[in-house]
């Protein structure tokens, strides 16, 4: 449109230029409504007839005046419109032509694209058909291979099942033999422990050995023979012959027990008339141990037999060595920093159930036992929404077993010292786990002896190399900021540990377990042992008081008159000796307990003891 207007402007300029050349001076108004030329021309044009006008135009060839402006403008306008129309038509034609060409181009493009799409679809269909054909061929081959594979697998499975059945049968027979030998071992231990207890009650071991002769040597030979059988069980190299050998060993130890019982009975019968000689008391002046007074070297000069019996010292050394050896089984686990979370999870898996132990009901106890048993068995347990399995590390189970033994002894210190009744629910769990894991029992004894050596019983003497602090720490005292704990606090802690240890003697395991691996025969051995030692300040009276208060009633039921005689010896022989060195609270409490026994004729059943088959 701009192009058209521009052409129109050029047209006007050209017209006016030509008109100015045709006309001379213009004196009158020539443009607008007041134009004289326009009026004159119009009047002339009106007066002159049409034919005449034509004639004049034809004939008049003389020079004439330029045409009027309106005619020029009319011509110009007409030309402009014609030119404009031509331009518009030209543009329209161009547009039509362009549109047509674009349409044809688009149609061509669409056609080509449609052809390409059709070709692409065709190629895809062909490819899919080829793939389907190939797939069918592959599937056919795979099916053949699969059928062959399943046939081979079925054949192997049948062979494996046959082999497995044979292996299971062998394993079943092996397990039967092992289980039978295990029962023999437990029975042997029980009988052998009874023999040791009986021997301890004999006032003259030399006379006993002389009376038994070669039979006494069986006490060493029979355990070694049974250990050989048990060693083969550990190597899974047992058969019916080994079981029969184990049965023979048990029968021999039973016969030996019967023979020893008769011999000890004869010896004791001879000694009935000599009670003073049979009294297991130390007549020499005792050595006082007072943490308030520094221990000098001269105080430690005493014979070892004043502090511990040779048998108990050997037992103490063996247990401590076992504890030391066991700590080597998980030293790598402690050294690896990246296993910190694993160690933490194991501790939680132990601390949570142990801290929650109580005799609220049987289900509660069983739940805590199952969790601890599963952990030590290498099974997965859930602790605070986390799965914990000790077998995730090769040293995980020894680590957890050590933690659990240490934790139970610590509960005696922290829990039972303030809540004595709790000792029995802890003891029944301990006994049940001890039946399942014998090494756990040894570790437990190791930590008991470490925290409270009076349970051996062992009054540990001071060595020349020890400082006063080191010595009292060995005795069980705690030091805080270089200061030894007060005596009353020390005795309270010892009371909790003692009560838990003594509760184990009379604890009943869970249903399905018939034996207590550390039963009341050990209580008799302990009492006989401590009465043979020189009494110590505070601790001896505390130990005897807790012992009689915890297991006195059961000792009377089991040993009857023999125990009553022993209590009489304590009151008439041991107490006067004890009073010579000690007159404090522990001695007073022990004396009150004995006077109560004397008036009633029996010891009271302690609070918190669980009934038989409680869980």
UniProtKB/TrEMBL annotation:
<dbReference type="GO" id="GO:0044614">
    <property type="term" value="C:nuclear pore cytoplasmic filaments"/>
</dbReference>
<dbReference type="GO" id="GO:0000822">
    <property type="term" value="F:inositol hexakisphosphate binding"/>
</dbReference>
<feature type="compositionally biased region" description="Basic and acidic residues">
    <location>
        <begin position="42"/>
        <end position="63"/>
    </location>
</feature>
<dbReference type="Pfam" id="PF07817">
    <property type="entry name" value="GLE1"/>
</dbReference>
<keyword id="KW-0963">Cytoplasm</keyword>
<dbReference type="InterPro" id="IPR038506">
    <property type="entry name" value="GLE1-like_sf"/>
</dbReference>
<keyword id="KW-0509">mRNA transport</keyword>
<dbReference type="GO" id="GO:0005737">
    <property type="term" value="C:cytoplasm"/>
</dbReference>
<dbReference type="GO" id="GO:0016973">
    <property type="term" value="P:poly(A)+ mRNA export from nucleus"/>
</dbReference>
<keyword id="KW-0653">Protein transport</keyword>
<protein>
    <recommendedName>
        <fullName>mRNA export factor GLE1</fullName>
    </recommendedName>
</protein>
<keyword id="KW-0175">Coiled coil</keyword>
<feature type="coiled-coil region">
    <location>
        <begin position="143"/>
        <end position="177"/>
    </location>
</feature>
<keyword id="KW-0906">Nuclear pore complex</keyword>
<comment type="similarity">
    <text>Belongs to the GLE1 family.</text>
</comment>
<dbReference type="InterPro" id="IPR012476">
    <property type="entry name" value="GLE1"/>
</dbReference>
<keyword id="KW-0539">Nucleus</keyword>
<keyword id="KW-0811">Translocation</keyword>
<dbReference type="GO" id="GO:0005543">
    <property type="term" value="F:phospholipid binding"/>
</dbReference>
<keyword id="KW-0813">Transport</keyword>
<feature type="region of interest" description="Disordered">
    <location>
        <begin position="42"/>
        <end position="69"/>
    </location>
</feature>
<dbReference type="GO" id="GO:0015031">
    <property type="term" value="P:protein transport"/>
</dbReference>
<feature type="region of interest" description="Disordered">
    <location>
        <begin position="275"/>
        <end position="295"/>
    </location>
</feature>
<dbReference type="GO" id="GO:0031369">
    <property type="term" value="F:translation initiation factor binding"/>
</dbReference>
<comment type="function">
    <text>Required for the export of mRNAs containing poly(A) tails from the nucleus into the cytoplasm. May be involved in the terminal step of the mRNA transport through the nuclear pore complex (NPC).</text>
</comment>
């Amino acid at each position: 449109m701009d192009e058209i207007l521009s052409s129109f402007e050029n047209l006007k300029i050209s017209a006016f230029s030509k008109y100015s050349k045709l006309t001379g001076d213009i004196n009158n108004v020539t443009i607008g409504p007041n134009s004289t030329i326009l009026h004159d021309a119009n009047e002339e044009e009106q007066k002159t007839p049409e034919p005449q006008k034509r004639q004049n135009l034809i004939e008049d060839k003389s020079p004439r005046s330029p045409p009027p402006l309106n005619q020029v403008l009319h011509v110009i306008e007409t030309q402009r419109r014609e030119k404009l129309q031509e331009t518009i038509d030209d543009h329209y034609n161009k547009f039509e032509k362009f549109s047509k060409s674009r349409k044809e181009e688009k149609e061509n493009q669409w056609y080509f694209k449609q052809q390409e799409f059709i070709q692409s679809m065709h190629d895809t269909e062909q490819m899919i058909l080829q793939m389907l054909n190939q797939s069918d061929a592959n599937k056919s081959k795979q099916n053949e291979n699969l059928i062959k594979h399943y046939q081979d697998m079925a054949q192997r499975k049948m062979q494996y099942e046959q082999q497995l059945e044979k292996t299971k049968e062998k394993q079943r027979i092996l397990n039967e033999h092992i289980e039978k030998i295990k029962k023999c071992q437990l029975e042997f231990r029980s009988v052998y422990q009874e023999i040791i207890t009986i021997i301890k009650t004999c006032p003259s071991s030399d006379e006993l050995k002389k009376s038994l002769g070669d039979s006494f040597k069986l006490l060493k030979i029979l355990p070694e023979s049974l250990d050989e059988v048990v060693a083969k069980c550990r190597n899974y190299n047992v058969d019916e012959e080994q079981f029969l050998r184990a049965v023979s060993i048990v029968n021999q130890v039973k016969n030996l027990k019967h023979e020893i019982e008769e011999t000890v009975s004869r010896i004791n019968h001879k000694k009935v008339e000599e009670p003073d000689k049979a009294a297991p008391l130390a007549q020499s002046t005792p050595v006082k141990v007072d943490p308030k007074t520094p221990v000098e070297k001269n105080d430690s000069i005493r014979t070892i037999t004043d502090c511990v019996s040779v048998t108990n010292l050997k037992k103490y050394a063996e247990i401590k060595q076992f504890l030391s050896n066991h700590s080597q089984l998980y030293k790598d686990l402690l050294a690896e920093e990246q296993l910190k979370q694993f160690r933490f999870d194991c501790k939680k898996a132990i601390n949570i159930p142990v801290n929650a132990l109580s005799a609220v009901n049987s289900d509660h106890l069983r739940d805590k036992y199952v969790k601890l048993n599963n952990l030590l068995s290498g099974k997965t347990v859930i602790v605070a929404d986390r799965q914990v399995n000790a077998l995730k590390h090769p040293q995980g189970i020894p680590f957890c077993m050590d933690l659990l033994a240490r934790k139970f002894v610590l509960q005696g210190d922290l829990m039972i010292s303030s809540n004595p009744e709790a000792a029995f629910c802890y003891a029944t769990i301990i006994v049940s786990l001890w039946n399942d894991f014998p090494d756990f029992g040894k570790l437990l004894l190791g930590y008991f002896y470490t925290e409270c050596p009076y349970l051996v019983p062992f009054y540990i003497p001071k060595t020349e190399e020890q400082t006063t602090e080191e010595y009292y720490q060995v005795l069980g005292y705690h030091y805080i900021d270089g200061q030894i704990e007060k005596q009353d606090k020390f005795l309270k802690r010892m009371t909790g540990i003692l009560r838990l240890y003594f509760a184990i003697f009379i604890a009943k395991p869970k249903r399905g377990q018939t034996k207590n691996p550390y039963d009341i025969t050990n209580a008799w051995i302990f009492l006989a042992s401590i009465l043979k030692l020189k009494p110590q300040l505070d601790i001896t009276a505390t130990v005897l008081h807790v012992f009689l208060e915890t297991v006195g009633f059961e000792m009377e039921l089991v040993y009857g008159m023999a125990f009553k005689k022993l209590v009489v010896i304590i009151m008439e022989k041991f107490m006067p000796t004890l009073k010579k060195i000690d007159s404090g609270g522990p001695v007073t409490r022990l004396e009150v307990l004995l006077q109560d026994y004397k008036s009633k004729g029996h010891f009271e059943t302690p609070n918190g003891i669980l009934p038989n088959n409680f869980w």
